Amino acid sequence: MQQYFVEGRAEKLITITDKDTVKHMFSVMRLAEGDEVVLVFEDGIKHLARVVSSSQHQLEMVQELRDDVELPVQVTIASGFPKGDKLDLITQKVTELGAYAIWAFPADWSVVRWDGKKLAKKEEKLTKIALGAAEQSKRNLVPQVSLFEKEEDFIAQLSHFDKIFVAYEETAKAGELSTLARELSTVVTDQKILFIFGPEGGISPKEIETFEQAGGIQVGLGPRILRTETAPFYALSSISYALELTKR
Amino acid sequence: MQQYFVEGRAEKLITITDKDTVKHMFSVMRLAEGDEVVLVFEDGIKHLARVVSSSQHQLEMVQELRDDVELPVQVTIASGFPKGDKLDLITQKVTELGAYAIWAFPADWSVVRWDGKKLAKKEEKLTKIALGAAEQSKRNLVPQVSLFEKEEDFIAQLSHFDKIFVAYEETAKAGELSTLARELSTVVTDQKILFIFGPEGGISPKEIETFEQAGGIQVGLGPRILRTETAPFYALSSISYALELTKR
Hints:
Two copies of one chain form a homodimer. Chain A has eight helices and eleven strands. By secondary structure, chain A is of the alpha/beta class. Helix content of chain A is 33%, strand content 23%. In chain A, helix 2 (86-96) runs parallel beside helix 3. The first copy, chain A, folds into two domains: 3-65, CATH 2.40.240.20; 74-245, Alpha/beta knot (3-Layer(aba) Sandwich), CATH 3.40.1280.10. The A-B interface holds A 68-69, 89, 93, 96-98, 136-139, 177-178, 180-181, 220-227, 230, 233-234, 237-238, 240-242, 244-247 and B 68-69, 89, 93, 96-98, 136-139, 177-178, 180-181, 220-227, 230, 233-234, 237-238, 240-242, 244-247. Chains A, B: Keywords: Cytoplasm, Methyltransferase, rRNA processing, S-adenosyl-L-methionine, Transferase. Chains A, B: It is an enzyme of class 2 (transferase). Chains A, B: Residues 70-239 form the Ribosomal RNA small subunit methyltransferase E methyltransferase domain. Chains A, B: Residues 17-58 form the Ribosomal RNA small subunit methyltransferase E PUA-like domain.
């Protein structure tokens, strides 16, 4: 069943005001009176809702759904600005794979430089991609997308996390394969995890030092060299496997 | 260091004959006498090699490398033909993530129909993508790409596998989250695993029945709905995490 994210809280009768949502519901999907959809409100709770008036864009709540598909921990993915449209792919896929937030920052070895208007436009595009992917994968929330114009602003956020993982190619090369598994066995529900990925050129030694000082733990993601956009897929899949599929 | 796959076996002195490899080595990378690269032969063993003559495309072996980055099991990914260029993305990413072979077949609910010339052209393109991704991720082998023109030819292959997993959305919805983890705890080194994924429309009940009769086990890949191209990333990442990153 089609799912939509709606601002505010669930009430008996609600009117859809967001233009894109209205367009998708009543022009694209041509919802008519009596049709049912799932609405997810800002509290992350899903409701089965029924169209009362397609011309007034009104729906009534039928029942609250217990469906909660969020990871037991909040995982923020932070990528050093990668080339081209790779952030589009990263945003879509990590949303499907359960990311809580999607951040990107100008890393020392990022080739692209986005700022001002371009950055805002990019962030807007990625936010739309995240919304679409969150609806499609039936998430309870839309990952928040933030592109940092300055790396120092990203670094200032590090203290807000319970655990920081740094995907480090050199670590993988050196055969450091079990740190991630060991660390994941210690996380507890609702912890805030930050997973940092470098751009194509990798993470600079200076950055590694900064992340380590903030408590960052270098982890390898298996023995194969993963592209910058593939590493976050591995990370989130592993976290899901470890925390959702494995009996602990 | 740049890595190339070379046909045949390692000998003291070898001449590169494959046109694309010659072009990349001596035109793109402009390798000169004394430059070193890694060559991987058909046995999967990597060798450090040094250019002896760039005009003759000759290299000498310096030493055998112990580097083996292959998964401990052979995982074949089999996707029902998905729409558009999704197989390109699947091929690149599952090669990075360690797939042994990449198959696709016309599933009951595949929208696209590829046959004859078009299928052969597609297979050729995907084979090149797999080669590029295998070099980039420093694999010991290039995954074999096979596109089946008839689903029955794919089904005829099922008996060659030790274990068959079927990614089944309905299973995930019903909260079946631990089968994959339980089954992965029983696999042993070098086993042949087949992981089947449906196209966008999913796997038909008839197909599910066929796969089950062949020993296929339905597994959920976490509670979120993954797109057809994302599910294989989750599957391979989980297999790597379970078999390479977790102490067993």
